[in-house]
Specification:
Length: about 500
């Protein structure tokens, strides 16, 4: 059922239907298609997503549910060559009723990874673009969002598709620009978990690429670290000739890959160790984050960010290197970098509780990301931390449970939500709430196991945390809803 090899006649496409349009990978694509002038609609479940507001603002109709007749009605009156369906890998993927109906009708369909690969070439919009892929196990959303902001700030009007709902101060996370650059967040997960297990990133063939790190994640797809590394090697081999590859020199796995590469591309390294763009003098204090960069052994300049986290200072360095390679001056780069204010669900300020506690929300769902986020908010805000954690997928939880339980040593109190089950979890992945809770109880003094979002919110409200506290909601599911329940 995989139609990967089929060509799309973009000259004739007039209507595009997005199955699972609320997903953070899908919604930006729908915005881009809508901006170009394709007639766009989509479908999804009734549950509220962080993308709902953006879709409403852009007047994109979202149908509730996946009934076949919705697709049939949208595609009424034109020839099948004028239609295209783009689907998420969730909600059944190619087995979704609407995708199956499209196939039966002879309508072409793509998964999100394939569609993004097409979009970043510019072909669907009858233009030629140069792709910038940002990938890695951690930091790719922040780095790609930062790229979108700084390129826009410098007047280059890039196109971009970033896996969130909003980027501050730009706005929605998908945009079709007039410039020649297209920034794409590169996801290493598969395009369709049953019929197309090709990692989505392999559909991207950019002129520029940033690989921030490699870590073992997605144990339902990858066997081990070697498996992850092989996919990254394939991605690099698929880059356009003469491209530029930015690699984090602090990551030993990436440096091993670098030493094995035989490609006609320029490799530029960055990091804390000796590298082409080296970060030095990171100064993090309450409310400020400053650092300096050395380029090829010579002092390049000092930079400041408006967001917390030493890891975000490090995330900024490949963006600085990219802008430098595009011929931008130090003063231009410094001003552009400072303009970035974060993105939705990445250490996002949600508000305060009635008692004055600050509420921060973050998408972190891997032990490494969780530790980095906790350290960042602790240093930047200097408050006691109550953390609400929702582990995402049983398979990831089972594989990393001990690491997860060690990730919260710096918090004053931990509130656990039930594990957020994924459609890709199997029966063998399931673990009980008791087995989930046990290692956290063993290592932390104060742990509360909530039964639901509402239960967690009620518990936090009952504690009356004051302005000396910070409530951090973290996880890739719907844990963010706790913040909105307790917000003043």
């Amino acid at each position: 059922m995989n139609n990967t090899k089929e060509k799309i006649d973009w000259e004739n496409i007039k209507k595009v239907f997005f199955v699972g349009i609320k997903g953070v990978g899908m919604m930006p694509l729908s915005l881009i298609a809508n901006e170009y002038g394709y007639e766009v609609e989509g479908s999804d479940i009734a549950e509220e997503f962080i993308t709902d507001e953006v879709l409403i603002e852009n007047k994109i109709k979202v149908h509730e549910g996946f009934e076949e007749n919705i697709v049939m009605k949208f595609f009424e009156g034109l020839d099948v060559k004028n239609y295209l369906v783009i689907t998420t890998g969730a909600h059944g993927g190619y087995n979704n009723p609407q995708v199956r109906k499209a196939k039966d009708m002879g309508i072409k369909y793509l998964n999100q990874g394939q569609a993004l690969g097409f979009f970043m070439t510019g072909v669907p919009f009858h233009k030629k673009t140069k792709g910038i892929t940002v990938t890695g196990s951690h930091g790719k959303t922040t780095i790609s969002a930062m790229c979108a902001v700084v390129l826009s700030e410098l007047g280059l009007d890039p196109s971009y598709s970033v896996g969130t709902s909003r980027i501050m101060p730009l706005g929605p996370s998908g945009h079709l620009g007039n410039g020649e650059l297209f920034v794409a967040e590169g996801d290493e997960y598969v395009g369709e978990p049953v019929f197309d297990k090709t990692p989505k990133i392999l559909y991207q063939h950019p002129d520029y690429a940033i690989i921030n790190n490699i870590d073992f994640d997605h144990p339902d797809i990858y066997k081990d670290m070697e498996d992850v590394k092989n996919v990254m090697k394939q991605f690099i081999m698929g880059m356009n000739e003469g491209g530029k590859l930015f690699l984090n020199a602090d990551d030993s796995e990436l440096m091993n890959i670098k030493n094995q590469l035989e490609r006609n591309i320029e490799i530029i390294t960055y990091g804390e160790v000796e590298s082409d763009f080296r970060i030095i003098n990171i100064q993090e204090s309450v409310g400020s984050l400053d650092f300096s960069v050395v380029k090829n052994g010579n002092y390049y300049g000092e930079f400041s960010l408006q967001i917390p986290g030493i890891h975000n200072a490090k995330n900024a360095v490949p963006v600085i290197a990219l802008l430098d390679s595009l011929g931008k001056s130090y003063q231009e780069v410094k001003k552009a970098i400072f303009s970035y204010k974060g993105s939705k669900r990445r250490m996002e300020k949600v508000g305060t509780t009635s008692g004055g506690a600050l509420i921060i929300d973050d998408y972190g769902h891997h032990p490494v990301e969780i530790r980095s986020t906790i350290d960042a908010v602790k240093n930047f805000y200097n408050k006691k931390i109550v953390c609400v954690f929702q582990s995402h997928t049983y398979s990831r939880t089972r594989n990393f449970l001990d690491d997860f339980s060690n990730s919260f040593s710096e918090v004053d109190e931990l509130v656990l939500l039930p594990i957020f089950k994924s459609a890709r979890d199997t029966e063998s992945d399931i673990i009980s709430d008791e087995d989930f809770l046990s290692p956290f109880n063993d290592k932390l003094d104060k742990v509360f196991m909530a039964k639901s979002i509402e239960d967690a919110a009620s518990y936090i409200k009952s504690q009356s945390y004051g302005s000396d506290f910070l409530v951090l909601t973290i996880g890739a599911g719907d844990v963010y809803k706790v913040g909105y329940e307790i917000k003043l």
